[in-house]
Design goal:
With 791 residues, this protein is an alpha+beta fold. The protein is built from 18 helices and 40 strands. The chain has a domain of 208 residues: FAD/NAD(P)-binding domain. Helix 2 packs across helix 8 and helix 11 crosses helix 16. The longest helix is centred in the first third of the chain and has 21 residues.
């Protein structure tokens, strides 16, 4: 199927890598009418990671958009054989996941509810029913399980061949034995590739190089944070009772999965502590190759597999596969246009889920290339969730030793990764640690979750809840001090700075110097690309503050919006610490350490003020629903300022308290309630859209929405929400919870979420299979008139 003709000197698109992902991108570009496409493979089709993949296709993912992406893959694989004439081995055999513990069963019940949120058929089943679906399984220690009939399996190499054939039918060229040795970049734009057989000029370069994707990225100056790890499975001899239609079985408590193959089983899994590989780079050539057997590393999986399927103890092993593949720092793949180089795209780092993801990821990236922007919410996989700090080989090696095992680790709420920490630290980290901070991690930053003793994970009310409740009470009743240095901070400076932001921002940002504005940044469909604050600090300069996780993404979005205007965007995150003083006594506390007049300091104002020995920017704004100020402190003064504030006797508080208070107040969060498919009308934020218009996406921003963001207040004070739970009205699903916390102010669990259809005032919430009544409102349950904020 390889094209034997000489390489062309130019093409519209060059795709590097002809595994299943590269083949899918080519197929979907051709489907969109882009046929001047060349796929370059340094070896042969599917010779890297694809050929030794297990071929499992499970639909359910952690978000609605990622689940829809996998659902598309299943639909594509089901029709591909008829379309191309190539068998794919696709079989919708379903899957069964079983639990050995009550905690795991709680997770599976939550999984089933989440599946229903996203339109995936899922059924909670008993141990007996699991045994009927999988008769060769031992079930005496099984608590229960979940049955997903729409899941399936396929042959990865055959799928790749079918996708390639489909692309070639439209004129796409696939060239084997061509190695890319360089990427041409001029003025920050990809111009083509250099190969061992000549150069190809191209308007778009797509990096689908699998384990080599990091190396290809570095050729272009692009961050592709992934690292390879050894990954294992065995294929057994025939086993009595194993039939071709046997579902895929997952036993996450035993780290193992099972798939039928030629009357035997593929037995694999994800050990808790992985074995990184390729620390000195991925060798070349490396075609259809495996690494040495490592039964010691595989033993924890095999021992658990024998426990679950006793017949394995007397069944021979036909083949041991140790096939390395690439993993990312957060166990989600990398997709999208690189922020460093225009026209350079990445689809890599699929974390052992490449077969399930390839169909949907290929279509999504093809849409991105053709249309210039993604058509759906791809934030969980967006390459821009990482920045240059993540492209460190030592850090990646240590991190992926943990992320491989996350596939079958318990999905505890608020679970924190433990490896490769600490990385990024606030200037006052040592003061926080000395005060007993329990840290979490966000975008590499160490952030305070709460102050007090570390507590075990739980699906119920956690042991740390009283500590967080006390922090919330301190802020609501007196005042609290928060270190929010991890905020991403940019300056936009230049003659046209106001014009650039007026085009991007929904709110009016052409205000007098010293004013801060909360605003959305929309896409052409009216959905949120970002929500952030913009402070005009001078006639030609703005300070832009956004979430720590969105730093690269938001910077890229704003930078693209500058175009040929006279303005320069600079990331100044590391230049400033941010300390927030929030609560009804915040004015009095700040007044005690400053000569500035905080009595005549209106909401939305931003000023340079003295604070002890230092000069800082004080901005009156809040994310907790109280009177308060954010203090932007040059990094060299951070310790001095923080010690000055501590000298007032103010309580310290962490991120969990912020989260609880913002949910009480109904404040939306990007990535939860806000995203590329959520408009201001749907979010209940139409008031942030200026009537004069002129901003991107205004045509759709205020269109009637089919679903809306609502506040949720449980009636039962003993029930606890985490997010992801289903909302039911009159027995039918109508939405789901996006953010949740215990509210010490109200004495019950509160949340934010989406409701589809007409407005409702009451609903039931499915919490791991139990139904709890809740009040539903589009108004915030705490201080809906914002009288405390404006005090």
């Amino acid at each position: 199927m390889s094209d034997r003709r000489a390489l062309p000197s130019r093409a519209q698109v060059v795709i590097i890598g002809a595994g299943i992902v590269g083949a899918s991108v080519a197929y979907h570009l051709a489907e969109r009418g882009w046929t001047d496409v060349v796929v370059l493979e340094q070896g042969r089709l599917s010779c890297g990671t694809t050929w030794h993949a297990a071929g499992l296709v499970g639909q359910l993912r952690g978000t609605e958009s990622m689940t829809r992406l996998i659902q598309y893959s299943t639909d594509l694989y089901a029709r591909l054989e008829a379309e191309t004439g190539f068998g794919t081995g696709w079989q919708r055999c379903g899957s069964v996941s079983v639990a050995r513990t009550e905690e795991r069963m709680t997770q599976l019940r939550r999984t089933a509810a989440q599946a229903r949120n996203y339109g995936v058929t899922a059924e909670v089943i008993s141990a007996r029913e699991a045994g009927e679906l999988w008769p060769v399984m031992r079930v005496d220690d099984v608590v229960g399980g979940v049955w997903l009939p729409g899941d399936g399996k396929a042959n990865p190499s055959d799928l790749t061949q079918a996708l390639v054939r489909g692309a070639q039918k439209h004129g796409v060229r696939v060239c084997e034995r061509v190695r890319v040795t360089g990427v041409s970049v001029e003025d920050g734009v990809a111009k083509g590739v250099t190969t061992d057989q000549g150069e190809i000029e191209a308007a778009h370069v797509v990096n689908c190089a699998g384990q080599w994707a990091k190396q290809i990225g570095r050729m272009a100056g692009v961050t592709v944070p992934l690292h390879s790890a050894e990954h294992f499975y065995v294929v057994t001899e025939r086993i009595e009772g194993v039939r071709p239609d046997l579902p895929v079985l997952r036993d996450p408590d035993g780290y193992a999965y099972f798939k039928e193959e030629v009357g035997g089983l593929v037995v694999g899994g994800f050990e808790p502590q992985a074995k990184p590989w390729g620390m000195d780079g991925i060798p070349y050539p490396f075609e259809f190759q495996l690494l040495e057997e490592d039964w010691d590393q595989f033993s924890i999986i095999m021992e658990n597999a024998i426990h679950r399927v006793p017949a394995l103890e007397t069944t021979g092993v036909r083949m041991f596969y140790n096939g390395p593949e690439s993993f990312t720092p957060d166990n989600m793949f990398l997709l999208g246009e690189a922020p460093e180089v225009r026209g350079f795209y990445v689809a890599a780092g699929f974390n052992s889920a490449g077969i399930a993801s390839a169909g949907g990821a290929g279509r999504a990236l093809a849409e991105w290339i053709v249309d210039g922007a993604p058509a759906t919410d791809l934030w969980p996989a967006d390459l821009r969730r990482f920045a240059r700090w993540a492209d460190n080989d030592t850090w990646l090696r240590d991190r992926v030793s943990e992320t491989l095992g996350l596939h079958y680790a318990m999905s505890w709420p608020n679970r924190e990764l433990e490896t490769a920490r600490p990385l990024r630290r606030s200037p006052v980290h040592h003061l926080l640690a000395a005060a007993g901070a329990c840290f979490g991690s966000k975008a590499g930053w160490e952030r305070v979750n709460y102050f007090g003793t570390a507590a075990p994970y739980s699906f119920g009310r956690p042991e740390w809840q009283p500590q967080v409740d006390a922090e919330v009470a301190a802020c609501r009743n007196q005042a609290a001090l928060f270190d929010q240095t991890s905020f991403a901070k940019f300056t936009l400076k230049g003659r046209d700075a106001a014009a650039v932001l007026r085009r991007l921002c929904t709110a009016e940002v052409d205000v007098e110097a010293g004013r801060v504005v909360y605003t959305g940044l929309l896409n052409d469909r009216g959905g949120y690309e970002a929500d952030l604050t913009v402070t005009r600090v001078a006639q030609d300069e703005y300070l832009i503050v956004t979430g720590s996780a969105q730093a690269t993404r938001d910077f890229d979005h704003i930078a693209k919006g500058i175009g040929d205007k006279r303005a320069v965007l600079v990331d100044v995150t590391s230049a400033y610490a941010v300390f927030s003083v929030m609560g009804p006594k915040s004015r009095k506390i700040l007044q005690s350490v400053s000569k500035a007049d905080f009595e005549v300091f209106p909401f939305g104002a931003s000023r340079l003020v003295d604070l002890g020995y230092a000069t800082v920017r004080a901005t009156r704004v809040t994310y907790v629903g109280e009177l308060g100020w954010e203090l932007y402190v040059p990094a060299e003064f951070a310790v001095t300022v923080y010690e000055t504030l501590l000298g007032t006797g103010i309580a310290q508080a962490g991120h969990y308290a912020v989260e609880a208070m913002r949910i009480e107040k109904g404040y939306r969060a990007w990535g939860r309630e806000l995203g590329p498919e959520v408009t201001p009308a749907a979010a209940g934020l139409g008031f942030t859209c200026r009537k004069s218009g002129g901003y991107r996406g205004e045509e759709h921003a205020l269109e009637p929405a089919g679903r809306h963001v609502v506040s949720i207040v449980l009636d039962d004070p003993e029930a606890h929400l985490w997010g992801g739970e289903s909302l039911l009205h009159e027995g039918a699903p109508v939405g789901y919870v996006t953010s949740a916390a215990h509210s010490p102010t109200l004495g019950v669990a509160v949340g934010l979420g989406f409701v589809t259809g007409p407005a409702i005032e009451k609903a039931q919430v499915d919490i791991a299979g139990g139904l709890y009544s809740a009040q539903i409102s589009r108004k915030a349950p705490y201080d809906p008139t914002s009288s405390r904020v404006k005090a």
